[in-house]
Amino acid sequence: MKDLIDIRSGLAFMKMHGLGNDFVVIDARQGADPVTPALAQALADRHRGVGFDQLAVVSGSQGADFHLKFYNSDGSEAGACGNATRCVSDWMMGQLGQTNVSLTTTRGVLAAVRRADGLVSVNMGAPILDAALIPFVGDPVATGLDGDPVAVGMGNPHCVFFVEDAEAVDLSTLGPRYETHARFPEKTNVEFASVIGPDHLRMRVWERGAGVTLACGSGTCATAVASALRGLTGRRVIVDVDGGQMEIDWRDDGVWMTAPTTYVFEGRLTPDFMAAL
After folding, report:
1. Which of 57, 84, 170, 200 is exposed most, by the fewest CB atoms within 10 A?
2. Choosing from 87, 159, 216, 221, which is the catalytic residue?
């Protein structure tokens, strides 16, 4: 894709999704990052823009193949986005003719690989269980909040509830209530999970700055970590989300997440759209 960041002729972008968790991706490796919170918010509009759960900006990186920066659909920055990381890594592997890549985010250097079965795995790093770093006010495992959730950091803060039936949870009511809870000073993603079999979970998510999404990579990782900490499962689990199924493996070197990726289309924003911002 040429002239990716020549705004005078429009701004080029790609649309991808991982299990229905969808993204706009902008390749800014050849120039300055063109994304502002206002542009991210306008692009996220599913009626007047392109529509996405998160936006990922690709740029160069010292000591890695590329760097990723993330925005939520409300224009706020996100510290991590596991599904976007897998999708962009898959695309970058194709660009470089490799089956593995390294990348940097605010989490540091991460690794991604394409397995023989075509699925893409990314190491999302070690879970953050220090309350001050999540950040969370209190004990992350024994939070004392109604419903007895677990607080976990995976680049984003997460509040994980274990319930009898995740399908029965009213996400649109409970999600925003806990997203803005005072015990999470930077707000939080909110997950509701139930155990459906040995090392098998069902999880639904309300994402900070985005709302209900079909999948959340960092949230699925946080849910698997919380389940292992509570002794509900082992450290390697299958998690059913609204958009499909993910494999999570909490290893000594970090939490590995594996699932399909889809490159949907590429396009170019018109100069008129850019000028209206």
Report:
1. 170
2. 216
Which position among 81, 87, 159, 221 bears the catalytic label? 81
Q: Tokens at residue 110, please?
A: 């991460």
Catalytic annotation present for 159: no
Give the right CATH number for 150-252 from 3.10.310.10, 3.40.50.300, 3.50.50.60, 1.20.1250.20: 3.10.310.10
pTM: 0.94
**Which CATH number is 7-114+261-275 given?**
3.10.310.10
How large is the C-alpha radius of gyration of the chain?
18
Tens digits of per-residue pLDDT, 237-251?
A: 999 999 999 999 999
Strand partners, 71: 55, 77
Report the DSSP beta bridge partners of residue 193. 162, 203
- The predicted pLDDT at position 73 comes to 96
Residue ranges of the domains in the chain?
Answer: 7-114+261-275, 150-252
